[in-house]
Fold:
Amino acid sequence: MRGVGRPRVSLTIRDCKSRYFAALCKQGPEPYVILLRVRALKHGAAAPNQSSALIKSHVKTLVSVIIPAYNGERFIAQSLQSVLNQTIKDLEIVIVDDGSTDTTAEIVREFQRADSRIRYIAQANLGQAAARNTGAAAAAGDLIAFLDQDDLWLDHKLEVQIRALKESGADVVFSNGHIFGHEPSDDNMSFPVVHGKFSGTEMFPLLFNQNQIPLATALVRADAFAAAGRLDENPLYQNADDYDFWLRLAGGGRMFVGLPEKLIRYRIHSGQASTDAVKMLKAELAVLRKHEHNSLLNGVEKAPRFHSMYYKLVLALVEVGEYKEARQYLQHILAQEDYPIGVRAQALALRLLPSHFKSIMDLSHRIRESVGYRIAGPLRRVLNQARSMVANFFIQIMIVC
Structure:
């Protein structure tokens, strides 16, 4: 296998004095970092041919791993190494540099010199969806997997999933994963994924109610990916383009298998794109609106899903001080039939005491947890009987929920 068997060593103090290793050394000692050859750069070694990387490799590969990168010098070495450590060696890594201005390119090229399975493509900054599409167009594998520049795979990730694909005949396999970050409690978190085998008809409503597929866990047959078409590069869906893609695959009748094993490590940190909660929620809402009229949702109650999204957006907007827009999303909830009791009281609180809205909601939640369940039922029955506007207003103020 090309590149397999090359020596793996730790970075030395001398290496860390080189600017090419600055990002790696800040992360601390890494026992499995591939030897990076500074001398090759110093003596004018030719840079990889970027244009040739855009052409599919003539060598057939089992798995193509696509990694979009943008200013990823902090973590990309660790992500790359987690792929190189896979027990399945028949793979290629297609890194699409989406206009980085840091040392991402230098770090990747050093890995590339040590392992010919790594391919590097540079493009202007067009966004994650465009970078993933570029990588998919260049991929030579029978299977396609995605990994973000800051996440990690466990060593047996591909081996477990390839076996599941063969045994099930599915088009897409996904799994659970570890979530880790700055807080020790983060390590106990995981993803809300479903387990088992699902037809597209079964999977579509499950996905509509909640995205069940963490992108870094997915392994997709290349022919299924091609049939579904490119990821949607519309800015409306930025950072939710994968969610849209899973819905399209399910809508096209593809078969899915969900595994309970935790096969990835998803990193939480301040620099990642998904930390902007408002943008993420708006993108997810746009995807829901795109697919809400699909016939596979006939008979599915969609109002609770939209209510949940609107309410999450209200809280996220309040968090950043966008009170006017938060009130607009509360109005979306009020426009729905059978909106939850208490929304009018929440709208009043947001209008009169916007800066204290989150504290009021937290207090009302604690009250509900302690005594609310004992009185909520009787109060709701009274409220249903009291149809006048005055009674409706005062009772909702009383329960503040």
User: Anything to note?
Assistant: The mean pLDDT is 81.
